[in-house]
Amino acid sequence: MRPITLVTCAAAAALAKPVDFVVIGAGTSGLVVANRLSEDPSVTVAVIEPGGDERDNPLVYTLDGWYQVQGTHVDWSYDLKGPPGPDGKPRKLAAGKGWGGTSLINGMTYIRGNTAEFDAWEDLGNPGWNWEALLPYYKRSELFTVPTEAQIAAGATYDEDYHGFEGHVRTGYPSTVKNTSFSPNVTQTWEGLGFEHNLDLNSGSVHGFSVSPSTVDPEQDIRWDSARANYYPIEQRRNIKIIQGTVKRITWAEKRGRPPKKGITANGVEYLTPDGKTKTLAVKKEVVVSAGALRTPLVLEGSGIGNPRILKSLGIDLVVDLPGVGENLIDQTNTVQAWIANFEASSTQFQAFVTAADLFGDDLPAVEASTRESLSSWSQAIVDASGEGALDPAAVETQLRLQHDLIFKKNVTLAEVISMGAANAGLGNGDTPVFGSAYWNLLPFSRGSVHLRSADAIDDPAIDPRYNLVDFDLQASVAAGKLVRKFWASQPIAGSVSGQVVPGPDVLPEDATEEEWESFHRAALSPNFHPLGTASMMARDLGGVVDPELRIYSTANVRVVDASVLPTQFSGHLTATLYAVAERASDFIRGKAKRN
Ligand SMILES: Cc1cc2nc3c(=O)[nH]c(=O)nc-3n(C[C@H](O)[C@H](O)[C@H](O)COP(=O)(O)OP(=O)(O)OC[C@H]3O[C@@H](n4cnc5c(N)ncnc54)[C@H](O)[C@@H]3O)c2cc1C
Ligand SMILES: *[C@@H]1O[C@H](CO)[C@@H](O)[C@H](O)[C@H]1NC(C)=O
Ligand SMILES: *[C@@H]1O[C@H](CO)[C@@H](O)[C@H](O)[C@H]1NC(C)=O
Ligand SMILES: *[C@@H]1O[C@H](CO)[C@@H](O)[C@H](O)[C@H]1NC(C)=O
To answer: What keyword terms does UniProt attach to this protein (predicted)?
Structure first.
């Protein structure tokens, strides 16, 4: 049972001065909100974050640090449920800890997605959420530096109309984007396979190939995380502070009983200090939960918001019945293939995005029909795997059908392929320089979950990604894998490589069978580190947790602003969209502040 929290004398002494806003988590999204809210000197903002100030950590700011930063104190490095990795140990999900959150350790790729993928959010019960509405926020968040002539020649093209030049998040091209013979070789090979050079991957259409911007400061040639963007420049403001701590739960103004019609009101948060003391911080206006897709559900469950059956088993009193909390976890799976490089491996990375028609060719109509017929059985499988009465099969099917329409009617891209040399990819084995591709199915149908393991296990989420629960997800990865092999076997890039080394010929021979393709992809998969959807912005009867203003249903003053609210995957990398969503959320909150 959860101990009842009494405000004893000691606890009362620990009460800090009340603040107007508390942001839970100084991560990618949370610091955007904290920055925007504290622009108004008359409001006070506290951010609570377990990690610390990492501005002087070279693994955080150097371009190639992110290969080594995983597993250090800046990475929560969560164990995953489900099949172990190739080393027999649980697969790990990296997630950043510290001022900047996961932006401290990510791969820096800045790509938004396809218009139709964001327009679909509107169809999930979110009026006003679509590409048109997001575009001004993408631009507001961005400070784009155009590529040099040599980088344009290397493939880094852009369309000025789609970029912002006054935001906080620096985007541009690091020194690793170089004009070498790799670029024409890649370009001519993709063109030979029928793909076009995409002028700008951030224009709302990602089909084709290009060299995307990264979240970097090209002048200093360093990574640009959310703290560099949103916090260090304003840290001298007197109305904002970061408190080191881990939030256990939100506290409520109302006593037990039926929640009021306008929703229940948060009046503070309870957090653990690094030395294990429990403290309470009183909040006058709003609580913003930004602990990330893997941790926000834990904070909500700890606060009594979630699936009644799960809360009961944890001994936590129900405050708001929202069975979608922690469900709808969607990540992608990443696979690598690599070949021995005949020439100096280049450091430029090319992204290519392909549709189902590109992947399945003449088989497309058959694939479209068989997947459409499977939607209801997939929905049932997702419901069964999740258990605890969390999901409704009809609601899940509505979501899968929308996704099927995106893939097969709206022709959005289904796979991403990043091609590069070994120098910047962690590809290959040992010292052999390699060329290769990392690739993934962008729109998996499988759904996983994340929940509290026990009422006190706030640092140890039970994450079950359920990769490839839906077999089509694996087939789409395999189709992308076949395209990757075809690419590296096509001229002129074929001239740059000899024998394949990842995987070895024993695993995937030239004439590999369908079973060999599938078992390779099943065994070699790594998480793609894009988990989202665990407190989705969606109609409540579809399993949604927050409304279109990102407020938790049945609460008056608690919002979620992080990857948890993104209800679906899309053909992008998450930070570009998170920065835009957090800017928009800040407007919602400030609008409300003005009305009051
Ligand atoms: C290895 C890797 C590579 C990636 N590559 C890319 C890429 O190239 N491009 C891209 O766009 N995206 C990439 N991503 C994904 C992207 O970085 C994340 O989706 C994004 O940063 C998540 O932002 P967020 O605001 O949702 O959460 P986070 O940035 O994770 O912030 C959550 C914060 O909350 C804190 N917290 C957790 N629990 C609590 C609690 N109980 N109380 C208080 N605070 C708490 C955490 O310490 C953290 O600081 C990558 C991710 C990883 C791991
Ligand atoms: C890019 O490289 C090619 C081949 O070396 C060269 O001809 C061209 O001038 C370079 N372009 C720029 C802008 O540096
Ligand atoms: C590109 O192809 C040309 C012709 O085969 C070759 O000379 C050059 O080294 C290749 N470049 C790379 C980076 O593979
Ligand atoms: C999608 O592609 C199919 C053929 O692959 C085509 O018939 C259809 O018109 C396309 N739809 C859109 C919206 O582009």
So the answer is: FAD, Flavoprotein, Oxidoreductase, Signal
Burial-class residue 285 by CB neighbours within 10 Å (0-12, 13-18, 19+): buried
pLDDT at residue 3, as a whole number: 38
Task: Report residue 595's pLDDT band, with 50, 70 and 90 as the boundaries.
Answer: very low
Q: How far apart are CA 209 and CA 207, in angstroms?
A: 7
CA of 352 to the centre of ligand 3 (A): 20
Give yes or no: 451 in active site.
Answer: no
Comparing CA positions, the residue from 319, 458, 311, 327 lying closest to residue 384 is: 327
163 is catalytic: no
Amino acid at 505: P
* pTM for the model: 0.96
Beta-carbon-side half-sphere exposure of residue 79 (alpha carbons within 13 Å): 11
Find out whether the beta carbon of 343 lies less than 6 Å from any atom of ligand 3. yes
Length of the chain: 596
Burial of 498 (0-12, 13-18, 19+ CB in 10 A): exposed
What rounded mean pLDDT belongs to the chain?
Answer: 94
**Does residue 28 have its Cβ closer than 6 Å to ligand 3?**
no
495 lines ligand 3 (CB under 6 A): yes
Ligand 2 centroid to residue 120 C-alpha, Å: 42
Q: Give burial (CB, 10 Å; 0-12/13-18/19+) of 165.
A: exposed
Domains of the chain: 333-527 (3.30.560.10)
**pLDDT for the residue 431:** 67
Note the ligand closest to the C-alpha atom of 438.
1
Confidence of residue 7 (pLDDT cuts 50, 70, 90): very low
Instruction: Give the C-alpha distances (Å, rounded to integers) separating 473 from 124, 277, 514, 525.
Output: 22, 45, 14, 12
